[in-house]
């Protein structure tokens, strides 16, 4: 059982570090979450390994009240508190990610990619807005032939 627990902690830690080194902010946030899960599992396992395996986590009537018969409750309380704090921090990081992505137009960690993506985004928006048809006065739909003073329709619906 200790080998499975150690393997799970190692896989979570390795995956978290790998994601932490990625260039995108969302992957970094997920890496931090995996690292916090690994630390929580490590802290929780510290209260259950060794002499505490198979022991009661709470006091029972009839058993002597010494530490040899009971599991340590402190790691369980620390792990529960860390889970709640980790969830709140992940939610906060995701809100900051969305705000940063809205301002910068990208979710890259370093600023050089954000500037390049911003230039591309601006040039794309400029070309998109240049390709849009210009607005017409109310009542004159785009592309519908409008009668000219001579009674003939001009191409594209514009007056000559």
Automatic annotation (TrEMBL):
Region (Disordered): 114-160
Pfam families reported in the protein's UniProt record: Oxidored_q2
Entry's transmembrane regions: 26-45, 77-99
Membrane topology: Multi-pass membrane protein
A single GO cellular-component term on record: plasma membrane
Keywords in alphabetical order: Cell membrane, Membrane, Transmembrane, Transmembrane helix
Biased composition (Polar residues): 137-151
Biased composition (Basic and acidic residues): 114-132
Entry's localization field: Cell membrane
Annotated family: Belongs to the CPA3 antiporters (TC 2.A.63) subunit C family.
Protein name: Multisubunit potassium/proton antiporter PhaC subunit
């Amino acid at each position: 059982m200790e080998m499975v627990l150690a393997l799970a902690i190692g896989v979570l830690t390795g995956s978290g570090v790998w994601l932490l080194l990625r260039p995108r902010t969302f992957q970094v946030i997920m890496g931090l979450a995996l690292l916090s899960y690994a630390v929580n599992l490590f802290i929780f396992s510290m209260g259950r390994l060794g002499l505490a395996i198979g022991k009661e986590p709470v006091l029972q009537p009839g058993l002597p009240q010494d530490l040899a018969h009971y599991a340590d409750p402190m790691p369980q309380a620390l792990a529960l508190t860390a889970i709640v704090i980790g969830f709140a921090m992940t939610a906060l990081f995701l809100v900051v990610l969305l705000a940063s992505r809205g301002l910068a137009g990208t979710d890259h960690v370093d600023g050089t990619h954000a500037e390049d993506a911003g230039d591309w985004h601006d040039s794309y928006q400029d070309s998109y807005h240049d390709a849009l048809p210009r607005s017409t006065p109310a009542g004159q739909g785009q592309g519908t032939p409008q009668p000219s003073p001579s009674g003939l329709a001009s191409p594209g619906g514009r007056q000559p």
